[in-house]
Amino acid sequence: MPPKSKAVWCVMATLPALFIGCGSARSASGSAQSGMPATCLHPSPVNDSGLSDTQRDQVYRRASAAGMQCYFAWIATLDPATLPYATLPHTGMAALYTPPDGKSLSEAKSDASLVVVGTVLALKPLATSFGTQATVAVSQVFKGQASSTIVVNQWSHLEPRDNFQSIWIVDASPAPLLIPGDVVFLLLGTAPVGLYQLGFTGTYYVRNGRILALPLNPFGDTVTGLSENDFSAALTNA
After folding, report:
1. Burial level of 7, CB count in 10 A (0-12/13-18/19+)?
2. Where are the domains of the chain?
3. CA 115 to chain centroid
4. How many Å apart are CA 43 and CA 20, to the nearest integer?
């Protein structure tokens, strides 16, 4: 996952609410998961009536920790290679974000330590914290050095819904979850955990031979709609 100074960095995750009894609307798709502990499938309701603020904080911290353990147990049941990513619903991550990295393509490229285009091959949900590792097959390098495949660390991740019976994708706005099969230009930074996408300006999808920038990219309207070749040329010259 990227460093906290770069893109997220006050995450108010949706998962703790899932495990302390807050309801949510049903979400279609994703297959039912088996092998979950009974305490996760049938959690005890949290009762904070009559508690002091300190006691209430302790209760919710314990509930949140238990929820995270259930999340990790759920992750262990997944086979990421078999998930129908194209049909999974998406939701946004509740978080505060820093401004975009770079006000122009040249600034974004200057901020990046590695710039490539490639195809997303596979996803690996993290089993120790929120996040995902995306493996990308590199077809061209515009800045820096890369092997034939790289691993990109993302805050975007999968979450269970409907008491672990379905799945949705939780996207961080600066860097939505990369989906296997995506052809994408990536402007990447480097942190102790590895590579990560620059916020809002580090992701450019190739859709039907044309470039699609992220909605909050400050110069997105100048590159969206370019052909792949024209965008490659713009990156090279930036």
Report:
1. buried
2. 1-238
3. 19
4. 8
24 token code pair: 């949510």
Is the CB of residue 50 less than 8 Å from the CB of residue 95? no
- Virtual CA dihedral for 135, 181, 129, 65, nearest 10 degrees? -160
Phi, psi of 35 (to 5 degrees): 85, 10
Q: What is the pTM of this model?
A: 0.81
Contact present, 11 and 24 (Cβ < 8 Å): no
Q: What is the pLDDT along the chain (238 residues), one digit of tens a residue?
A: 444 333 332 233 333 323 333 233 233 344 445 577 877 887 778 888 888 999 989 988 888 888 888 889 999 989 999 999 999 999 999 888 999 999 999 999 999 999 999 999 999 999 877 799 999 999 999 999 999 999 999 999 999 988 888 899 999 999 999 999 999 999 999 999 899 999 999 999 999 999 999 999 999 999 999 999 999 999 999 9
Residue 187 forms beta bridges with which residues?
115
| Tokens found for residue 167 | 């799945």
